[in-house]
Design brief:
The chain is of the alpha+beta class and 189 residues long. It contains seven helices and five strands.
């Protein structure tokens, strides 16, 4: 659930590294690493859960993931918030990323997801099907944030913890056509 909601890498969720795993430094949260706050937008006021996520690829740089607690907007936020509260000062997911990948492989057996990218000669954009895995949850969430919620590159970069200069977010930008299309409807005469 955290991988999806936070658009997180598994190493930003789990607590332990496997012996000899020098590739990743796990950054999993404690149950105390969430708080609530009210968000006001004109006359509307909504309660938000603010989760602390430590970015895996940038040496634990903190990013805040803010999600509405009202299940009308996000049905899983309150469930996750309550889980954090139950765990308290302990780590949420006290296992290795390899253990998580192993369990996910069983759960996602036979499923695929589509990613897009430019062909090797960069002449056209082509969808590619890949086996569904934990990292797919990050891509599915990024796709949803752009296509369903209208996130732009800055929003997506901020939410998912991507570096604006070097990121793979360009694969999602074509999904935001709804934001661009109205600009084409202006009269230029």
């Amino acid at each position: 659930m955290c991988c999806y909601l936070f658009a997180a890498r598994i190493s930003e969720v789990v607590t332990y590294a496997s012996p000899g795993d020098h590739k990743t430094n796990p950054r999993g949260p404690k149950g105390t690493e969430v708080r609530t706050d009210a968000f006001k937008l004109g006359p509307i006021e909504e309660e938000a859960a603010i989760y602390t996520v430590r970015t895996a690829k940038r040496r634990g740089l903190v990013r805040l993931v803010v999600l509405p607690l009202n299940e009308r907007y996000e049905p899983w936020t309150k469930i996750l918030y309550d889980f954090y509260d139950e765990v308290g000062d302990n780590r949420l997911f006290p296992f290795t990323r390899q253990k998580a990948w192993s369990k996910a492989k069983e759960a996602f057996q036979g499923l695929q997801y589509s990613t897009g990218g430019y062909s090797k000669n960069k002449n056209y954009f082509a969808p590619r099907n890949r086996p569904f895995n934990l990292h797919a949850l990050r891509h599915v969430r990024a796709t949803s944030l752009v296509s369903d919620f209208g996130f732009d590159s800055f929003d997506l970069s901020s939410f998912a913890g991507w570096n604006l200069k070097r990121s793979s977010m360009s694969r999602y930008l074509h999904l935001g056509w709804q934001r661009c299309f109205p600009k084409l409807l202006k009269d230029h005469i």
